[in-house]
């Protein structure tokens, strides 16, 4: 075990048919000979939480946004003591990441600096968080007000009368750059509070581990749960719409088979039905602007939102309506979670000497304070901001195709963002001087080749990790969000012959034990297939999956840590969860009976 290693990134072969895949991505994102000595000595794990699928060249921007921002705020802004940033590489179209530890000799100095800088934020958290929401919502408005349309044959007369002084072609170039920079700026805000939020929780986590030997991770997490956050609002709105359908007397119509569009059309001639449809449409923006990516939301342009595809939330409204008619209470038991939170906190507090109560109270209070942001930022940025960014990007791609710069709008997403800037400039030049642009003929063979390579990359199964395993993992994000811990990596390398193929191990993220038939899902569009009493097995969940938690008895995910969305939501719903199993989706088949032990992190395949 001491000498065990994962494969070197430089020994991983290129999948058949994907030769030259490196040309799809930015050069600085790749493993390369000039960094081989450094990168072969580092531990890399597949970031299946954010990017479980092959990345389109244009979508590489999402990786770049958090790569730079997380690193800067860890390393340069707040001086996080144990770790610098999280480095990235793309290999065969998949993202691998590695935490970068701070030099041991710098930790004491960085800790003192961190205490000074972070304390200002902790002491003024509510005010700063209020400012943060305004900054992000201002960026959201900025992006939504951008418009991308085919360039006009002739500028409107207002350009003359209002002395605008610049052309529609210039504005197309300018607005694309603004779109990109607005997203980059938003990600600076993203990590303004998130790094130190995780640090505050990790401080409480470590205090509990020291004070209460043997305490489970989920017991610590439950001491900060039960808070009302905006992230749960979309699911609350689905419940409310179910209640409204029942109150208005249109429940039978809502429960009838058929797509959302058919339902809405059938209701608009009835006053009660029209009122309900109007309610839905008003609710949809912003509460149904929920990305449906597998796992972490917002990482891919290819996935719709609930607002784009109302059939997805309609499945849940119908389920809530059926349960309501059966006499069930469909509201989340937030009060019960809070009572359990306070009970656990009080019992552990009583185990401490009286002189230690103040320090414990301060730590748990701070952890609860930051927890709201840790959950809510997902709604503001991963959902609302990225949904707006992808929507405007698609609007741009349609405009470029209409102008003849592309054969198909989807072609744009096979270009890197810098190549899109070149494409726009070329199209604007042709429009400006009245000649044929070169873009379509220049990019056509490149896009065709990248489409072929992309398909080949999709067939590749990436190894979970690369390089030598670390002796210790202490970067807060890696531990709390991804669930990559020192023990987890040891388990990846361990010989599991003694347990046999019927046992999977992960992180016990929410307490309890449950059994049931497995339902393996890879995408939120499959939620309608879930039967009550089943165990959800998935890569990871996001808020788009929230309605499913009223039907299942337990959750098993391939990726995620104690503060991942899957873990937090399962604790809120009071159901067992095991996260970070690595390969549950591949190992378990729908229909197999499984037992999920949220205390020990063990998943047993009983069939």
TrEMBL record:
SUPFAM superfamilies found in the cross-reference section: Phosphohistidine domain
Superkingdom assignment: Bacteria
Occurrences of domain PEP-utilising enzyme mobile (ranges): 531-601
Pfam families hit by this protein: PEP-utilizers (PF00391)
InterPro entries, sorted: PEP-util_enz_mobile_dom, PEP_Utilizing_Enz, Phosphohistidine_dom_sf
Family matches, as NCBIfam families: PRK08296.1-2, PRK08296.1-5
PANTHER family for this protein: PHOSPHOENOLPYRUVATE SYNTHASE-RELATED, PPDK_N DOMAIN-CONTAINING PROTEIN
Protein's recorded name: PEP-utilizing enzyme
Source species of the chain: Pseudonocardia yunnanensis
